[in-house]
Each structure stands twice: as structure tokens, then as C-alpha cells.
Write a structure and sequence with these properties.
This protein is of the alpha+beta class. The chain is 23% helix and 30% strand. The protein has three helices and seven strands, in the order E-H-E-E-E-H-E-E-H-E. Strands 1-7-5-6-4-3-2 form a seven-stranded antiparallel β-sheet. Strand 2 (41-45) and strand 3 form a beta hairpin.
Length: 129
């Protein structure tokens, strides 16, 4: 699948600006989950990506790691159709509700984006075709 479409994401406001997020985390799915304070329940373990659900108390989100930035860009381009809130790091993405993502950003760093999807927000899982 070629990266043809432009991912239309708007960077969300970051608050007062005095609270700098931590340096953007990197590592394996398990390492990111440990930084997030959760145990990953791996859903997809493929050569190009690994995907797991994570729960940390009342917070629930999806973590996806990619072998390269192109795979991440393609996944985000396809996920854009669904809308939602994403936390984007080097070669990983977290998907969840706005509150979950804001809390996760405090642990993993990254950039919070809001996808302008056609189907509205609230979709917490994406399927690669």
C-alpha cells in the first residue's frame, strides 16, 4: 500500500506550556507498556507491527509499535478515517479517549493528535486490511 493520502491531523493544545512532557519513549511494545505502567495483552504480532490493549486502572488504550516510520504513517493514514485521539511517538502509536491519552503522554511523551475522521471519535481499535 503506497502512502498516497495526506494524514490530516491537528495538534491538540498542550495546556499551560509549563508542564513539559517527558522525552518521547522508545523501545519494544513490552518496554513501552512498562513505561505506561500496564501489562500488554498482545492482539497482533506480525512482522510489520505489534498491537496490544493495555489497562492501567480505569484507563484503557491500544498500543501499536511499527518496524519503521513508513508502516506507522500508513497505519495512521488508514486510521484517520475512523477519527479519534492518538499519541504518536517515533515508531509507535497509542489510541484511546482524550483523558487516557493525556495521562499516557505524561509517561511516554509524544505528540497528541486528533484525527479528523468521517465516522467520529471513540473508536479504540483499528484493523489493518
Amino acid at each position: 500500500m503506497a502512502v498516497g493520502g495526506v494524514l490530516m491531523l491537528a495538534v491538540m493544545g498542550c495546556g499551560s506550556g509549563s508542564d513539559d512532557p517527558p522525552k518521547t519513549a522508545s523501545g519494544s511494545l513490552e518496554q513501552l507498556a512498562a513505561e505506561a505502567g500496564c501489562r500488554p495483552d498482545v492482539q497482533t504480532d506480525a512482522a510489520e507491527l505489534r498491537q496490544a490493549t493495555c489497562e492501567n486502572g480505569a484507563r484503557r488504550y491500544l498500543l501499536v509499535t511499527f518496524t519503521n516510520s513508513r508502516g506507522q504513517a500508513e497505519w495512521l493514514d488508514e486510521a484517520n478515517d475512523y477519527g479519534g485521539t492518538y499519541l504518536v511517538g517515533g515508531t509507535w502509536v497509542a489510541v484511546g479517549g482524550p483523558g487516557d491519552i493525556a495521562a499516557l503522554r505524561g509517561r511516554l511523551g509524544g505528540t497528541v493528535v486528533d484525527a479528523a475522521g468521517r465516522h467520529g471519535g471513540g473508536h479504540h481499535g483499528h484493523r489493518m486490511g
